[in-house]
Amino acid sequence: MAFLECVDLIKLYVDQQSKIQVPALRGVELTAKEGDLIAIIGPSGSGKSTLINMIGGIDSPSSGDIILDEEIITKMTKKQKTQFRRHKVGFLYQTPERNLVWNLSALKNVMLPMKLTGRWSRGEQIKRARHLLKDVGLEGRIKHKPHQLSGGEAQRAGIAVALANDPLLVLADEPTGELDSTTTLKIIEYFKLLNKSLGKTFLVVTHDNRFANMTSKALRILDGRIVGLHRAVDSEVSLDIREEVIFVDDHGNMRIPDSIRREANIKNHVKLEMREGYATIIPVRGD
Predict the structure, then answer these.
(1) Domain 4-255 maps to which CATH number in 3.40.50.720, 3.90.650.10, 1.20.140.10, 3.40.50.300?
(2) Which residues contact 44 (CB under 8 A, 6 or more apart)?
(3) Strands 217-222 and 225-234
(4) What does pLDDT average to over the chain?
(5) pLDDT tens for residues 173-190?
(6) Listed residue (1, 63, 27) closest to 222, CA to CA
(7) Taking 70 as the threshold, does the pLDDT of residue 105 lie above it?
(8) Tens digits of per-residue pLDDT, 234-283?
(9) What is the spatial distance between Cα 59 and Cα 10, in angstroms, rounded to a whole number?
(10) SS3 (DSSP) at 101
(11) Is 106's pLDDT higher than 90?
């Protein structure tokens, strides 16, 4: 069984003016193993933030199920979801204002999620917070408040906060959207380092295509559907040799990339035939 599994997730929003239902997610299927570092890459409006909010128990799908470590998140009550987020999920958002309490030091910010779980004594909280801040290179900034940190330092403090409650899953929503290119690459490297050293499962949603080459697996999301997979051919050997494959959901649906559709002159219909053991897509002319 997968550590994380999303089964046929559909999310419909109602436009308040027209009263028309607008789909944000259209049957998303997703699985992850424990310890995975996965990027979900897509443009604004593709449904990636909606998806991560569902997985984190912040929002609920219109239909479908989400299962994490054999717990069905979508069956939880509101109170159960609050406890689930408090104990089993770490969140990292785009801006420091959402990750950090502005009048607390970096050390106290990292201690705060531990206090909410009630799992550690104050002495243990301090020790753990110092260790996490050291892991993200901020051992010399523990007394600094967020406004005294650079953008990259504040985001690294946010990573420490996301890990403070010892979560099963870390969810990052556009974590590098406000950062310059150099700082972005450093943040990605911290994700890789912490993923490997702590064995935590990281799910990062972003529009930044650089994540595709920095993780062993990157999913492409478009118009509320997972449409492709960018992955290392052999992640145990190297992340440099990559391949791009098309995602096929449990209903047999897939999205042919626009570049291939144009080159093959595919319009509205195709035929599928088996030829020498391969499934072949044949454009239907005059449709």
Answers:
(1) 3.40.50.300
(2) 207
(3) antiparallel
(4) 91
(5) 999 988 999 999 999 999
(6) 27
(7) yes
(8) 766 566 677 888 888 877 888 888 888 888 888 888 888 888 889 898 88
(9) 12
(10) coil
(11) yes
Rounded to whole angstroms, how far apart are CA atoms 112 and 101? Answer: 9
Helix runs in the chain, H state only? 48-55, 78-88, 96-99, 106-117, 122-135, 151-163, 181-198, 258-264
What gap in Å lies between CA 153 and CA 146, rounded to an integer? 9
Q: Which of 246, 248, 245 is nearest to 232 (CA)?
A: 245
**Which structure tokens are listed for 143?**
């007394």
Distance of CA 186 to the CA centre of its chain: 18
* Residues in the chain, overall count: 287
pLDDT score of 60 more than 80: yes
Structural domain boundaries in the chain: 4-255, 256-287
